Each structure stands twice: as structure tokens, then as C-alpha cells.
Amino acid sequence: MREQLEGLKQEALAKVTAAQSEKELQDVRVAYLGKKGPITEVLRGMGKLSAEERPVIGALANVVRDDIKAAIDEKMEVMAASALEQKLKAETIDVTLPGRKPKQGTTHPLNQVVREIEEIFLGMGFSVGEGPEIETDYYNFEALNLPKDHPARDMQDSFYITEDTLLRTQTSPVQARTMEAHKGKGPVKVIAPGKVFRRDDDDATHSHQFMQAEGLYVDKDVRMSDLKGVLELFAKQFFGQDRDIRLRPSFFPFTEPSVEIDVSCGICKGQGCRVCKQSRWIEVLGAGMVHPRVLEMSGFDPNEYSGFAFGMGVERLAMLKYDIDDIRQFYTNDHRFLQQFHTK
């Protein structure tokens, strides 16, 4: 058995020396030191030895086992050191090369548009108001002259949470809350940008979640001409000094009279094109004089106070300003799209 153990040792050490990979070393470890290896088989035959030979052969078997294991571990360390050295050489940084500038983020185009809208109206003396996105039925509808049976209250148009609460369908509730907070005393001059939610099928021009910016001005002797002047100034500052607006009669439950506001097409300069559908005008927002009933429900005397309100879709303004043909581009988080609006 002594000769057999010595032979196994030399055989194993030779294979360790010849091994070229960690897998080959592991194969040697399993083959010679495993439970089914030849050293184990030798130990199982020690029962045939005399009492004097057993401890000698047992000690020799342990030495052989330890020598093989030590040789394998040593070769493993050499291979690991060699692999690390090669990796370091491959990943060596050439400090003489020019550095790579980190990619810089930018404000989202919708936030840029909201900021621009706010700056324009702040310059006209408006303040910026905020309100909850989860709104009560009263402020979202009733305080805005939308009775229980009005079509706009249909469940197909709104995300109801309970019978009396829903995701706001417009930012107009901020107007109602602001007037109520003034307790019937003017002036009230506020814009309210924010997210709104409606049950709509998403496509190139519609989204179930979008942004609005609404405005309100209530004071004594506020006239329709004031509304036209404010929105004309906004259109020229937002779209360009060469743009004009026009007012068309319309209907909204919370304003009377109500109008649709169009801005002259900046693509064709009044000649007619596919963008304006040959009409030379593009619809941008709705507006009107605040309905006396809305004033009254918010604590204002309609015989003493009057006012105007307007509402615009932020995405629509951004699409018109930057010639974007699909509203879904704003929500895909595509860096290639967003980087076009990089601000310094």
C-alpha cells in the first residue's frame, strides 16, 4: 500500500502541474481527493493490514492527501494571480486620452412650458395656485356650475374613487378654492397649472393623464376686453410677436359668455397649410367671463364683482410650439426625444 500511495501522489502532482485551467484542477481534486477517489479506496483496504501497519499507512495516506491538496491550492493561487494581472493589463486606463464628459440631464419639456407660462403670467401680476389632485365632487363640479345631471359628470369621463371623491378632471377646482379663500373680497388673480385625469383612450392627441394651466381674474369692472388683452399678450410672448388671436363663441358651464381662443398659424403665416387645416388658425384654449352662479357659490357678489377664466392644455401648447405630432412622446422617457429640449 505504501508504494500504491506514493504512486498516486506522483500521478496526482503530475496532473496538477499539467493543468491549464481551474476546471482541470477541480477535476484533479475530485478524482484523487473525492469520496470515490483511489486514496479513499486504499484506506478502505486497511482492515487487511496488521495492527502495526495500520497507523503507518494511515499517517502516510493523510500526508499524501495533504500534499495533493496543497499543490492544487498553490496552483489555484498562481492561476488567480495570473488572471488578475491579465485583467489589469486589459483594463489599464490611458490617462493621456481625453476624458468623457458625463451626460447632463435637462428639465422635461412639459415642465419647461409650465415654467414659461408661469413667468409670463407672473409678469402680468398673477400668482400661482395649487390644489389637491384627489378632489371632492363639490369643488370639481358643483362649485363650477356643473349640476348632478351634467354630461361632463358621466362616469365614463372621470376616475371616481368614492361617490364624492375623484381624480380631478380639470384644474378649475383651484379657482373655486381660491375664490372661497378670499371670502368675497377681490381682487383674485391666479393661474393654476397641474395634472388632471380623464377616462380617455390614449392616442396621438389624447391621454388619460395630462396637464392643464388655468387662469382666473376676479375684480370690480373686469370686462371681456381685459380677457382678450391678457391672452393676446400671452400668445405673443409664448408663440412670438407676430402671432394674433381670435375669439369664437362657445359654451362652458362655468363661464358666460364663453369663447374659444385661436392663434394664427406660425407655419404658414396666414396662407393655409396642413397644420392649421387651411384655416390659418389653430385652436389653443377655452375662456370666458366667470358665470355669476360660480361667483355666488364662491362667496362673491355677482352684482359687484366680475371676472374671466381660461384654461389651456400644456401638452397642446408644447406640441404647437415645438411641432410635435404625438402626445405620447412626452411620457416615453426616450432620451433621444428629451435631449432636444436641453436647457443650459
Folded structure, characterized:
It is an enzyme of class 6 (ligase). It catalyses: tRNA(Phe) + L-phenylalanine + ATP = L-phenylalanyl-tRNA(Phe) + AMP + diphosphate + H(+). Tetramer of two alpha and two beta subunits. The chain is an alpha+beta fold and 344 residues long. It has eleven helices and nine strands. A seven-stranded mixed sheet has the order 1-4-5-9-8-7-6, with helices on both faces. Strands 2-3 form a two-stranded antiparallel sheet. The model has no long low-confidence stretch (mean pLDDT 86).
% residues in beta strands: 15-25%
- Estimated radius of gyration: 40 Å
CATH fold-level topology of the largest domain: BirA Bifunctional Protein, domain 2
CATH architectural category of the largest domain: 2-Layer Sandwich
CATH class of the largest domain: Alpha Beta
Can you tag this structure with a few keywords?
2 domains; elongated; 9 strands; 344 residues; BirA Bifunctional Protein, domain 2; alpha+beta; 7-stranded mixed β-sheet; two-stranded antiparallel sheet
Secondary structure elements and their pairing?
Elements: H1 2-18, H2 22-33, H3 38-44, H4 53-90, H5 109-122, E1 127-128, E2 134-136, H6 137-140, E3 165-167, H7 172-181, E4 188-197, E5 209-219, H8 224-239, E6 245-252, E7 255-264, E8 281-290, H9 292-297, E9 306-313, H10 314-322, H11 335-338
Parallel strand pairs: 1-4
Antiparallel strand pairs: 2-3, 4-5, 5-9, 6-7, 7-8, 8-9
Helix pairs in contact: 1-2, 1-4, 2-4, 5-10
